[in-house]
Specification:
Length: 130
């Protein structure tokens, strides 16, 4: 269930994500390798997704983005705080694949921090109707 949050909280969280990226020095290019490891993963017989340890960073980053994308804006309860309107049934793997396609199509942005480029990729793929 989406919770109502203020735009200030969302902005503060995006700034936090940006600083987290700076502290780790993880560019979108560097993260792309981690995300490719996830995309190349396989499903086990029990249905569990299995990928190399290298994919852990990407999987965790997109877990956070997936949850944030569902948060409603206090100013616009019908809209989303981060302007990402992915359908409720979208999966984390789908978000990772969207990011990888965006990264392929926008190589000029790969020097930027992962949170910013990932956010742009999801906004582009899942725009909110006005």
């Amino acid at each position: 269930m989406c919770r109502m949050v203020s735009p200030v909280f969302c902005l503060a969280f995006v700034v936090f994500l940006s600083f987290a990226g700076l502290c780790r020095a993880e560019s979108a290019l560097e993260a792309s390798g981690s995300c490719r490891a996830v995309a190349n993963g396989e499903r086990g017989s029990d249905g569990t997704l299995r990928f190399s340890r290298e994919g852990d960073f990407c999987w965790g980053a997109f877990a956070s983005l997936q949850q944030l994308a569902r948060v409603s804006s206090a100013d616009n309860p019908k809209g989303r705080a981060l302007n990402i309107c992915a359908p409720p049934e979208s999966t984390r793997m789908q978000l990772v694949l969207v990011y990888l396609q965006y990264a392929t199509n926008h190589p000029n942005e790969l020097h930027e921090e992962l949170p910013i480029v990932a956010w742009r990729s999801l906004m582009s793929a899942f725009p909110c109707s006005k």
